[in-house]
Design brief:
This protein is of the alpha/beta class and 279 residues long. It contains ten helices and eleven strands. 35% of the residues lie in helices and 24% in strands. It has a six-stranded mixed sheet, with helices on both faces. Strands 1, 2, 4, 5 and 6 form a five-stranded antiparallel sheet that branches.
Amino acid sequence: MVQPLVEIQDLRVDFASATGVTSAVRGLSLTLGREKLGIVGESGSGKSVTGRALMRLLPPSAHVSAKTLRFDGTDVLRAPEREMRRLRGGRIGLILQDPKYSLNPVMTVGAQIAEALRQHKRVGRGEARDTALALLESVRIRDPRRVLDSYPHEVSGGMGQRVMIAMMLAPEPDMLIADEPTSALDSSVQAEILRLIGELVDSRGMALMLISHDLPLVSHFCDRIVVMYAGRVMEELKASELHRAEHPYTRGLLACLPSLDKPRGRLPTMNRDPAWLSA
């Protein structure tokens, strides 16, 4: 039996504040192999917190506990910080929502990709620059030599996101966590970016955790879907079988989607049952 790359059992994340404790993730369990897993749900459902917990990137105010929180045999909760630095950006890449907040505005694109590479690989400056150029070509950036010496404000949003993908691919990771990677982009660019991520994940044999609130997008792009609500998993199913979802929360999300084929005067309102959090 092939060991999963990611193993999570009974993950709980609580945030302490002056007004009390907020539970962001409540007993989440999942596994992930070298496949494409979509985590969907409304804002505040715990999707992003789950991804950051796996990389141990949560703030000090977060209290994280789990029976199992493991990446390829490494116990994330107990691993020393030196080992976590090798995992972050090395074996696990993180693509965030908006490149203009993720890229360093005072460094050129080429310098940032080369820096990411040299943090995890023993290569010289010349080789790092050549690799950065090759990575820009692999993410299908037009005129990669010009972009290599450009600053982030000199490239478009879609091109900036391609730069982020290239930077995350530089150390040849085993897994990508893509947290709403297209939400800040025009709809015409979103499909291109997702297609690119999918092709790169498949060709390199990586695992992908795609965090999104867009159910139709995830159903067409991923192998499996985990539906979250208020920090808990409501349902897990094959992406191809999303239309057969049984949980009332998943059915409610699907019912709230507008349709061009069957237009409605008013979309239904989601009814939430408190029993979902105690089942």
